[in-house]
């Protein structure tokens, strides 16, 4: 896998941008679900789309949710949706964005909801 996975808890980890070719490795590493927090084309036309990654994730047996969040404009609704995904998706869950920081911030904020 091209990108490093950074576990934050036993059941949740973050990663920088992943692509379709990474999904089999994500599944092999034991993850059951992927949350895509990077909006399509945020990094330009060469960025893998959520649809392409989702298709590869499903083919690898992963559940996947596309929740695009603009890093500089994270909202309370974004945090609530992220918390809901963490409650409902089978774990362990891997979330990714451009660097992993946005997912880390979403996770930290979601933990404050109780």
UniProtKB/TrEMBL annotation:
Pfam families: BLH_phosphatase. Keywords: Hydrolase, Transferase. It is an enzyme of class 3 (hydrolase). InterPro entries: BLH_phosphatase-like, Prot-tyrosine_phosphatase-like. Gene3D superfamilies: Protein tyrosine phosphatase superfamily (3.90.190.10). It comes from the Bacteria. This is Beta-lactamase hydrolase-like protein. Residues 6-113 form the Beta-lactamase hydrolase-like protein phosphatase-like domain. One of its GO terms (molecular function) is transferase activity. It comes from Achromobacter veterisilvae. Its EC number is 3.-.-.-. Coiled coil: none annotated.
